[in-house]
Design goal:
By secondary structure, the chain is an alpha+beta fold. It is built from 16 helices and 26 strands. Helix 2 packs antiparallel against helix 4 and helix 14 packs antiparallel against helix 15.
Amino acid sequence: MADLIVQGAEVDQRWRRALPLDQCVILGRRASWAIPWDDYISREHLELLWNGQKLLARQLPQARNPAFVHGQPSQAFELSPGEHFVLGNTTVSLADHEIEVSLDLPQPLQEQAFSAQYLKRMRFRDADVRIENLSRLPEIISSAANDNDLFMRLVNVLLSGVPRADAAAIVSVPMSGAAPRRVQVLHWDRRRLASGRFQPSERLIQEAIHRGESVLHTWNVPEAASDFTQLENYDWAFCTPVPGDACAGWGLYLAGKFAAEVATAVPLDQSPDLRDDLKFSELTAATLSSLRQLRLLNRRQAGLSQFFSPLVLEALEHDDPDVVLAPREALLTALFCDLRGFSLRSERESGDLLGLLRRVNQALGVMTHQILEHGGVVGDFQGDAAMGFWGWPLAQPDAIENAIQAAIGIRNEFSAAAQQPQHDLVDFQVGIGLATGLAVAGKIGTVDHMKVTVFGPVANRAARLESMTRQFGAAILLDDATANVARQRVPVSQAEVRRLLKVRPLGMDQAVEVSELVFPPQDGGESTAPVVVDRSHFDKAIAAFESGDWEQAAQLLGEIAPDDVTRFVQKVIRWHDSVPPPDWDGVLPLQKK
């Protein structure tokens, strides 16, 4: 393996990265491997390829300035480990990947542990320089594109803040599992003039992470006793653990040589240079932990915002999420929403599945937006369908009303899209089912897969109501408990509730009284029922049907404006020659889901 080391005019203008084998990387001011500080470098300047023996470099056509190799300009060249080239004001070196965490390092002359409390009480001798480096951490952490980018920048801060250190590394001891785990080097670097092999001490790292304190090892000290084996390249090394769950098992490792003036008469734990360095490392670790924890919480918050309304998120901020999200029984209103005819559409648009996926995602976005906008929880996605629910994790007195308004909002958005020929959702139709009752909600699943969802008859009933919208030609169907609230809380100018039938869904024992939300004729849009001159005429027809007087029901239905519901009931009557089954109880058993 080989590393590319980039060093600008300033000390902190530096990074070191491992070169991938047989993969091209682009070097430039705005490239994937960026050198942002040098204006003499083009946005994309050089293409590099490491073949395991040589680094092959080729200048890209848009690059303005040549690279200089051995003092000569070159647009294409090869580099061996140990060689370098100059690009603008930046030196780029190729180095062997010389690092190996080792248990075989010599016994240290002295081991000293430093608690965070002890280092906190110390005063910096050169506070201005140290604080200036620490002040860069918030910007470094917030702007890092990924962990590799973060590690690279953090190592630069350590080398800049600890001038005596010749090498620095971000290390990790995996915390999972009972067996001891080997140390991993997440990223490392050393000063350009440092020589020899860099071997972090696994014993030192394990000890520091295990103790939760900074641990210092020293090997070489002037006039030290000769019965201790000396380490050739470094006089000292220390590791500072990074606290907190966001950086579990991480450590900051630094190593270097003592200045010639350090004498054995001064105890090592009182060396001003080392104590300042240890304090700086401790503050860097604490700052990194706090900022990374905050960043992790922000990411979690952003992720949760896809499923929870702001009201629920506020509750999660103040309470233990495991407690808040624990499964429990609650009075819930569940909403199921599905795109109609999706299977047929996917078959017809098989030549542009990515385009279809984009449109489906947009449609699901309409559903989830309305659920969250009205205080609900996004519970699940099933292909082209979405499920939301209200009443958990917080009790909501207006849960049913909010669920109804979310359903109306979804229907209205798709209805508006249907009036715009160029809209991505112009030919999409939806069916929505709403049901209310007791159910269990929370984080439900297995150790391998968990999700926040609803379990119980209410979820099944809402799903069945959604599937019935196809048979009844309705946009929104409600069970009895939800319909009762809709009659009281939904303005007639917005929608009316029309009771349809009592049905027994396939595979279910209990009957469901089904009602429909009917929208004003001037509102337009699919699934709006025609104007019925006398709504009581329809109600009388349904009453006759349920009582078993199917001839009277057929006559009454034939006298009112036809719609999908009347046609459905008339079809049932014709199928039985206007004679109800012998066991007729007023509940229509459905033959399909």
